[in-house]
Design a protein that fits this description.
With 375 residues, the chain is of the alpha/beta class. The protein has two domains: 122 residues, Alpha-Beta Complex (Aspartate Aminotransferase, domain 1), CATH 3.90.1150.10; 247 residues, Type I PLP-dependent aspartate aminotransferase-like (Major domain) (Aspartate Aminotransferase, domain 2, 3-Layer(aba) Sandwich). 42% of the residues lie in helices and 15% in strands. The chain contains twelve helices and 13 strands. The strands form three sheets. Strands 2-8-7-6-5-3-4 form a seven-stranded mixed beta sheet, sandwiched between helices. The protein has a four-stranded antiparallel beta sheet with strand order 9-10-13-12, covered by helices on one side. Strands 1-11 form a two-stranded parallel ribbon. β5, α6 and β6 form a beta-alpha-beta unit. α1 packs antiparallel against α8 and α2 runs parallel beside α8. The longest helix is centred in the N-terminal third of the chain and has 21 residues. It starts with a strand and ends with a helix.
Length: 375
């Protein structure tokens, strides 16, 4: 199989990830739930994972790293900490439903900072405009999950700091693929999954906390057990219930892999493959390709359409020929609205550190076959 759906889940992972998860299932208990060796080793594994994430994302204190089920879980905590019914919230024109649905459910006044695809200056100007009209919160994806568009979050964070507006960063498509310095951003929160660019198991995620959060769940934490309110300190305040220690052990090995390989090296590999793929697709007469051409503006995600062909049909045809991509709206209708693809959706290809140039060539060969068959 030619696997080109890493923006959904990185299927190919370091062998150490599965091995660590299997070992945790067989040998580790739950952190904070006992003084015996299996519980203590579980606690050590969890803290080591926090330390690895803190190093990778430049977080001052590992206890600011909170384990979540996924990025959606973390985004819900962040948004429901900072937004209320009627809160004026500025978002980019490329947000995922994991951002927009919680905001709409809260009854927030959502203002979209609309901008053209791959135009970072326009995105920055749009945020400036909306922030100057007054805002209680800003939420911005770092990288569009549909188009790979890298938004200028560092500059957007600067605008927010100047105006005293808290910022939540959705790092779902950037964590492990694009450098992210949480302390330099000064963001209130950054949420990310474990199963994409961090090469961990599904059902894992991280929330980096730069401000005091409100718990989304209440329950046992293994600490402050005599009190009926959640602990007032991190990470316990947000980690009610039993930890996914098998997932955390696997995520630790994913983080170690990214740290050893280097985020910059992974980013260069992915953007090179996307450039080669995009240029190859552009040579097809029937293809419309959403390619920036600037590696500083587009990460390892590429969308395209074949004129006159249904995107879902194209995705199914490719799947039947051994190429795994995703077609449709990708849970991000706002991004498609911004790019003018809402009515059709797109076919999305996305790569990882394990993707190869040979796979890209085999995929392009399949696409030439499809294009020739249509014409």
């Amino acid at each position: 199989m030619i696997y080109l759906d890493s923006a959904a889940t990185t299927l190919q992972k370091p062998a150490a990830v599965a091995a660590a998860s299997a070992r945790a299932i067989n040998q580790l208990a739950s952190p904070g739930r006992g003084g015996h060796r299996p519980a203590m080793e579980a606690a050590e594994t969890a803290f080591t994972c926090r330390e690895a994430a803190a190093r990778l994302f430049h977080v001052t204190n590992p206890e600011q790293v909170v384990f979540t089920f996924n990025a959606t879980h973390g985004l819900n905590i962040a948004i429901k900490t900072l937004a209320r019914p009627g809160s004026r919230v500025v978002v980019s024109g490329y947000e995922h439903n994991a951002v927009t649905r919680p905001l709409h459910a809260l009854g927030a006044d959502v203002r979209v900072a609309r901008s053209h695809l791959f135009d970072q200056e326009a995105a920055l100007a749009a945020f400036r405009r909306e922030l100057d009209r007054g805002a209680d919160l800003a939420v911005c994806t770092h990288v569009s999950n549909v188009f790979g568009f890298i938004l200028p979050v560092e500059k957007i964070a600067g605008l927010c700091r100047e105006r005293g507006v808290p910022l939540v960063v959705d790092a779902s498509q950037s964590a492990g693929c694009v450098p992210l310095d949480f302390t330099a951003l000064g963001a209130a929160f950054a949420a990310m999954p474990g199963h994409k660019g961090l090469y961990g198991p599904q059902g894992t995620g991280l929330l980096l906390c730069g401000t005091d959060p409100v718990p989304l769940l209440e329950g046992g934490t293994g600490s402050e057990s005599k009190h009926q309110s959640m602990p007032d300190f991190l990470p316990d305040r947000l980690e009610a219930g039993t930890h996914n220690i098998a997932g955390i052990a696997g995520l630790l090995e994913g983080l170690r892999f990214v740290e050893r390989r280097g985020v910059e090296k992974i980013a260069a590999h992915e953007t090179d493959l996307i450039r080669r793929m995009g240029e190859g697709l552009c040579a097809l007469p029937g293809a419309e390709v959403f390619l920036s051409g600037d590696p500083a503006v587009q990460a390892g995600v590429l969308s395209f359409r074949l004129r006159g062909r249904d995107c879902e049909e194209v995705g199914e045809l490719l799947g039947g020929r051994g190429a795994a991509l995703r077609a449709g709206l990708h849970c991000a209708p706002l991004a498609h609205e911004s790019a003018g693809t809402l009515e059709t959706g797109t076919v999305r290809a996305s790569v990882s550190a394990f993707s190869t140039g040979r796979e890209i060539e085999k995929f392009l060969h399949l696409m030439r076959e499809l294009d020739t068959a249509e014409n």
